[in-house]
Design brief:
alpha/beta; eight-stranded mixed sheet; four-stranded mixed sheet
Length: about 300
């Protein structure tokens, strides 16, 4: 709220697990009362994606998309209904909770990892068609915002919702769309949540680092794959259960509550910061630098 007061962010991206109401409507009231106290959503665009605590329940889901992919119980029976009623985003229909917005030089694509994103599904087709339509001369940067991370330092292996089975599903079905048919990169950053931790990964494809950050400013120079950030640190207890050693694609991990800042300075320089939420200290930072946008 202090940063909104100072006029800094052009938008807020809340990548799921919005209120943790989980079937208790009064929690939504409390959450919006907190929001109203700071007038966040009336002053800047407040972009959300639907996550397990909004969506997952056996057999439940909005009309037109079917039940959540993982058939869990984390929404307490909400089945996306309150979130879809409370947040009106430019999605294809009320039953298709994925959408794209343009914010200055950024094309921001919002997906829901709780609903089918496998090849040929409506959500996969939406992502393909949206990326095909991006004009990099108009919006030189593209970000994908999701809840469950594509890459994560987590040893969760329980199918179907464990961190690693979900990672494998995203890598197999969604990641190939991040390049066009000629092999040109068309997604620059991926921002996720879900795992209650902060993690910064390299520019990675198929679990292999294509470009690592370098130097004191952690610069990714002309990366040929998206850089992945995980920010699941808004206040819930920090997750346990990381791997004994960092995965080869993970560069930074921090069990600190905080939030991310994404600043686009021009067509060639994008800055990222992870900020501790009590004193505003910058815990981690990085840059993506390229000579020119991939037009």
């Amino acid at each position: 709220a202090a940063e909104v007061d100072a006029g800094w962010p052009a938008a807020v991206f809340h990548v799921g697990d919005i209120s943790y109401a989980m079937g208790y409507a009064a929690i939504w009231d409390i959450f919006f009362a907190m929001q109203d106290a700071y007038a966040l959503q009336s002053r800047v665009p407040y972009q959300v994606v639907l996550a397990n605590h909004e969506s997952d329940f056996p057999g439940g889901g909005p009309a037109g998309v079917g039940p959540s992919y993982y058939n869990g119980t984390d929404s307490g029976g909400e089945c996306s209904v309150p979130a879809l009623a409370l947040y009106w985003n430019p999605q294809p229909s009320r039953g298709q909770p994925w959408y794209v917005v343009t914010l200055g030089p950024l094309t921001a694509i919002h997906l829901s990892t709780e609903y089918n994103f496998t090849v040929g599904s409506p959500q996969w087709t939406f992502l393909r068609d949206t990326l095909d339509a991006v004009d990099r001369a108009v919006t030189p940067w593209t970000g994908v915002f999701i809840h469950r991370p594509m890459y994560v330092d987590s040893n969760g292996t329980t199918p179907p919702w464990g961190s690693q089975p979900v990672s494998q599903l995203l890598v197999a079905n969604v990641e190939p769309l991040f390049w066009d048919d000629a092999g040109a990169l068309r997604v620059d950053v991926v921002v996720a949540g879900h795992f209650h931790d902060y993690q910064r990964h390299c520019a990675v494809v198929n679990y292999t680092c294509a470009t690592r950050s370098a130097g004191p400013d952690n610069v990714y120079t002309a990366p040929v794959a998206p850089v992945h950030f995980l920010v699941g640190t808004a206040g819930a207890p920090i997750s346990c259960c990381r791997f004994p050693q960092l995965p080869p694609y993970t560069e930074v991990v921090s069990g600190t509550w905080g939030y991310g800042r994404l600043a686009i300075h021009n067509v060639s320089h994008l800055e990222w910061q992870f900020v501790e939420d009590t004193d505003g200290a910058v815990i981690d930072s990085a840059w993506i630098v390229r000579a020119a946008p991939p037009l």
